[in-house]
Amino acid sequence: MRPNRVLVVEDDPAMLRGLTTALRAEGYELMTAERGDEALKQLRGRQPDLVLLDVMIPVVSGFEVCRTARAEGIKVPIIMLTARGLETDRVSGLDLGADDYVTKPFSLPELLARVRALLRRTHPADELPGRLEFDDVAVDFEKYECTRAGQHLQLSPKEYGVLRLLAARHGEVVSRAELLDRVWGYESCSTTRTVDTHVATLRAKLGDDSPHPRRLLTVHGVGYRLDLTKP
Known about the structure:
This protein is about 40% helix and about 20% strand.
């Protein structure tokens, strides 16, 4: 499964650079456009999973991009970005079909949390397994019990959460952003570094912390996957 693809439509070079850097660090695949007509071309062609859409862009405004996309049946979630904080502008954007509206200057962690929450609402949750067994490790997610070679391990609730989501999607890459959203939740102030720390701790507890882990694998620049295929 590929990472979620985010289209950022912004004509301010500094803002565009900051947003793409932050989103790429969260594990998203990035598309960009600096004009409204370019944004519509991207929407019709590459089918992003979410759009961050500035209102004040050249050629075709963000409002018109949103209106046209919805008129053409394009249902991709849209978060509108604008320096215009008038209530009438916010209402206009939402009435045109935007899913959320953020006024500049905004908190980057809050914006990223809104992105995660909107993607979560539009992508059905995976069925989470009740048990997991590999090598000499056995995990009961319902009872919060984990053993390795018959010895009980103390895992934190968040470690159980990370391992359970990876188990539900074993063999597929789960982005740091999705792990953060699904395990820590929308309101969390944690960062993707927190995910990295918990995966490192899990590896140590499960005996998978060699220089070349066999089970909890890092996919650089994206996230992690659980490999249960190795003998």
